[in-house]
Structures are given as structure tokens and as C-alpha cells.
Input
Amino acid sequence: GEGLRYHINEGHAALLTLTLLERQLAGHTRWDVTDEDIEAVRQQCIFTTHTPVPAGHDKFPESQVRALLGEERTELLRAAGFLEEGVLNMTRLALRFSRYVNGVALRHREVSQDMFPGYPIDSITNGVHAATWTSEPFRELLDRRIPEWRRDNLYLRYAVNIPLDEIREAHARAKQTLLEEVERRTEVQLDPAVMTVGFARRATPYKRANLIFSDLDRLQKIAHHSGGMQILFGGKAHPRDEGGKTLIRQIFEAREALGDAVKVVYIENYEMAIARYLVSGVDLWLNNPMKPLEASGTSGMKAALNGVPSLSVLDGWWVEGHVEGVTGWAIGDREASDPDQSSDVDDLYLKLERVILPLFYGLPYSYAQVMRSAITLNGSFFNTQRMVMQYVRNAYFPPGAGEAEDTPVLRQQRETVSGV
Output
């Protein structure tokens, strides 16, 4: 249809372009695909790539393509130049047929551009739905202090003015709700006065769920000297991800070894209902994937809406959201990539021991300032309202040639019309 836009998320949906090409060729000889035909399809498509992990980019051998799509469509793909060395690469199919391509964070754009150097790639950073992920105590606080926040999430910037006592009070309620839910599910009682660290995401090796357990003696000493620490884990492994299942077993082994010195709870059957309690009720959100494999990540954004600061590797969204000691803390620096990961482990322990735990127990109002800044600086930006607005302005209805607004990426995308 005239003026329709199709937004392809990840290469999995790339066969949409084949359907559009068939429509475009209606009445033509099937194999006579011109640059004009390809351009007509390109004008209708927007493509967002979501992952730097190779397993996320599907490739299928021609025999499978033929078996599933049939002879005619396979020949159409061949005529359009999409069976490279007998393989259909779904990501390249989407790239070739889209007039606008983006990654999901600044850092991810750089990584994607390295992966696909022939295509101009923009970035629109992911966001989370603020009203869904803000816990009841913080919703009540924001409704009272910043009534416009639901209609326009940019108003979360005004959280800078909320008294710290009210931030502490709302968080204490969210934490109590979480600990009650944990006890109901696991029969483990946790202490609301103890620093509670949260870690929840898919159990897969590159996310390194067990990094904090690299040196159990050191972890015990840190907890003992600081005032204590308890850790909540959540996340499922893909049924065929043996590495992910091994990670979960290692967390259970660490839990046994640590005993009461550092209480560890693994929440099974992790899903959205418990996620909402977890991102709002812990005191610190931990994230330590191997760089640069985190395209964006969104769990830390959900935590930030509830005033929970992150301790995270500088990858994905945290490159943009991190202000050291203001919105949270970094593990390692942005540039270094340490193949044996030992420096990440050291940095994780040092930040906990020397910065975060002393602040939490010794200067609770300074810790509450970091919590408030997480809402002010991160909550106000990393939300779906801003994200959708950016898709509308940059991807769906970009300024045309000759209009006042223009960017190098838009110019490059207009120039890369054919022959990529």
C-alpha cells in the first residue's frame, strides 16, 4: 500500500521483504528484478538489528530454503542476489531491502557498523515502558510530586527535586514487598537492613552470572567487613543452552559454600511478575556481560525508574546512562577488553568493598542521592516514549531531501540506494 512502513525487528522477520518484492513484481517476469524494484521495496522498510551475538543472525543453506520456500521463491532470491555461496543470510536480506537501519544503543551502532561495513547504520537506544516498570511506591510518590510524569516521561527529570527522605521511604516499601515475595516463593527470609544485590537475565555464558563468585573467600571478607550483603538471582536458561544450565548449577554451588555469610537466593520460574518486584526492590542492580555482546540491555533501565543504581560493565545502554558515582558505578573502563576477565573481577570487588558498601551503610543519604539521580538522569531518557518518538522522527517519517533538517547518516542512507 502507498505510504505503508514495515518495521523489521531482527533478521528473523526478513522474509517480509520477499513478499513485498513479489507484490512489486506482480505481472512482471519473476526473475527480471531491477534496481527500481528493489528500491521500491527499500522505501517501505525499516530494519532494527538487536544483537552482536552471531547466533542471533540466522543463516540457512539453499537446500533448506528450497524445501521450505519452494522452487519459485528460491529462484527469486537467487535473481535478487541473495543466495551467497548457497546460503541465505537473513540479516543481509533485511539490510539490503531497508532504507533505514539502526542498532539499539550508541555502542551497538559502532559494533554493528563493524559487522556490516557496507551499510549506513544509525542508532536509537532502547527504552522501557515507564508506567509498567515503576513500582507502586514510586508511582504514588511520582503521582504526588510530578503528576505529569505518566503523560510525558521527560518530566521524570524533575525527580531531582524530590526530598531524599521520600525516595528512601518509597524504596524501603518496594524492598519490603520484594522480600515478602521472595519468602513466599522460596521460604528464605532476608534482612531488609542488609545491602541486597539483584542480577536477573537469561542464563547464558556471555552474561557471566557467576562472575561475582570468582573468589568466594574475598566475597565473604568484603561482606563481613562492610555490614553484610545478600544476592538475588533470577533467569532461565534456553533448554538447549548447556553453558547456561552449568551457570545456574554454579550459582547453587556458591550458595551452599557461602551459607549465611552471603545469602544467595535463586528465583526459579523467573517471569515478568517477579521481575517487577526484583528491579524495584533491590538496592543495587548488577550487570557484567562480556563486552561488546550486550546490544542494549533493559533491566538496568527498569531498575533506574525505581531509583536502583547499576553496577555494570560499560557496554550497551550503560555507556550512555553511566555517570560514575552519580547514576551508579562502572566495572572496568570502556576501552579495555580483557580476554581473561580478571580485571573485571577485581574491579567488581573493589567497587563493592571501597565505594558502594561504605556509602550504603555509612552515608545512606549520599546513597539516596545516587538513587534519585538514577531516576532523574536515566529514568527520564531510557523509556519507550522517547524511543518511539525517535523512531517516528528518524525512521518512519524522516525529513526528506531539501528540508531544513538533515544529518550525515540520513544523507549517507539516501546515497546508498543501490549497489551495496
The CA atoms of residues 36 and 418 lie 9 Å apart. The chain has a mean pLDDT of 91.
